[in-house]
Design goal:
Blueprint: E1 6-10, E2 16-22, E3 28-35, E4 49-55, E5 58-63, E6 68-72, E7 80-82, E8 90-97, E9 100-105, E10 110-114, E11 124-126
Antiparallel strand pairs: 1-2, 2-3, 4-5, 5-6, 6-7, 8-9, 9-10, 10-11
Main location: nucleus
InterPro entries: WD40/YVTN_repeat-like_dom_sf, WD40_repeat_dom_sf
Organism: Bracon brevicornis
Length: 133
């Protein structure tokens, strides 16, 4: 949820939608914004948006394509894209603070991203001890 009556959903087609609930109309749900195909492979094939997180009106998404998208509920265009965040599918994301996100891939690697940094590299990477060899 980005507010008491607005929430965000993702799809296996790589899209993200901002929806609103109107309780006065018997739980009517309407689309406020749509970011279509923001996750996809360089071949043109779609990639699932596998996870999203919110912090106030800000939204961060990850996908099978290894990309991170930073969105805001007020703008149609992504605020920022990190194209090569990971070489494999990203499966979870969470805002730690407004300017920090934590991502994880399907191999169990976690990366901490400082969004104040213009560089598209993580501030820290965490791996299991047996993967450091």
């Amino acid at each position: 949820f980005v507010s008491k009556d607005c929430f965000v959903v993702s799809s296996s087609l790589g899209s993200v939608k901002l929806l609103a609930i109107n309780d006065s109309l018997g739980s009517d749900i309407r689309e406020l914004m749509s970011w279509d195909s923001i996750h996809g492979f360089s071949t043109g094939d779609t990639a699932s948006c596998t996870a999203l997180t919110t912090f106030n009106q800000d939204i961060a998404t990850v996908g099978e394509d290894g990309k991170i998208n930073l969105l805001t509920a007020q703008e149609k265009r992504p605020v920022r894209r990190i194209e090569n965040a990971d070489s494999c599918s990203l499966v979870c994301i969470d805002f730690l603070r407004h300017n920090e996100i934590l991502t994880s891939n399907n191999r169990g690697h976690m990366k901490l991203w400082d969004l104040r940094n213009d560089s598209d590299t993580p501030a820290t990477t965490f791996m299991l001890p047996d993967q450091l060899k």
